[in-house]
């Protein structure tokens, strides 16, 4: 599948030219012309990398980058901007950006940087996907066997596949704030009301498995999502 790029550029001409060149290079590109539109696009679709301008209507690039980073720790964020002062670059990196390219830029350089960050991001995701065993407080979780074990090796609980899928995602993102829609997309494949109710049921089931260990807490963040608080290294 083509990597999908969120391109946020309020200059229609620059945006159109950049979009065309990226598509010619084999990417699927969604072009937004203001920060609010871009945020709505990001929440409704999946992207592999974000290219953001800084000065934009409705929501500036720094604010947008912070929002994106709170929702997704992995996706590469590159600023494409004419703001070349060191303090602007520092602010960009502090918001969670991975790179900062000043205009005018070489399209060849941009394509090379995109390729580097996509490879890096894919490697990070592959590592997380391959991992199958986790230490969760007093228990060990084996994703392949769908089992929670005591430290002694005794089976504590047997999970359903969906419980295991949800728990693995929580473990891969332990001690981080996760939006409801983010969990629904990654575990169920889409975000809708009825799947949200189903997720709440599975969250309740998982809590019961860790009820005997107060150091492990699956916390509800009302109006936001959940946080899987786990002590130490999983």
Automatic annotation (TrEMBL):
The keyword DNA-binding applies. The keyword Coiled coil does not apply. CDD domains: REC_OmpR, trans_reg_C. One of its GO terms (cellular component) is protein-DNA complex. InterPro entries: CheY-like_superfamily (IPR011006), OmpR/PhoB-type_DNA-bd (IPR001867), Sig_transdc_resp-reg_C-effctor (IPR016032), Sig_transdc_resp-reg_receiver (IPR001789), WalR-like (IPR039420), WH-like_DNA-bd_sf (IPR036388). The modification 4-aspartylphosphate is found at residue 53. Residues 131-230 form the OmpR/PhoB-type domain. Residues 131-230 bind DNA. It comes from the Bacteria. One of its GO terms (biological process) is regulation of DNA-templated transcription. Residues 4-118 form the Response regulatory domain. This is Response regulator transcription factor.
